[in-house]
Amino acid sequence: MRILKWFLLLSALICLSIPTAHASFIDFRSPIFYPGTSDSITRTVDGLTITIESSPRNLYWDSNDGLGILGGDDNDEVDGAEDLTVEFVLPTSAYVDYFLISDLFYSETDSIGAFNEEGKWSVDNGFTWNTFQQTDPTQLPSPASNGTYYLTIGQSINSILFMADDSLRDNDYSLAGVEVSGTPEPATMLLVSTGLLGLAGFRRKFRN
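Now predict its structure.
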């Protein structure tokens, strides 16, 4: 009976020692992400180090929309052949819940007519592209709204590449932030699992 009590106590202590997952929103509209005249910045927020790079021109930042790229069809957003990369440096991967997109409008207009803006993204230097499009009719062009869109990722990634959709339409947008969730480290989980299995085996041997 005493061994059983120790087993239950140790199991409880081990479970309490595992870091619990928590969401952290990193706001690219914060002044800490001001890039100056650079095409690459590295910042540490809430214990997470992130590098953000733009191509082919320097990064753009403002406190309303977040990060974009200078030049191009729009002087403050990701458009045309421009691309923006977000890389998780330390730790080398993070579970991303979503990216907050701004300036992605519903019923935007160009020389062809009205359309809903869209963009595309690819993770970890992959060749698979995913598209996203504004579908919220309340997110009309500025000043009616800020073109807010929540791009769900729902996976652990090392890096993500953003581009405007390469159609004939005038697609463009900015990155306003990212929400990441903390997860227990694999080594910690392995140690905990091994310890619990060992304790369970010891208990069975003692009972026999």
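The chain has one domain: 27-185.
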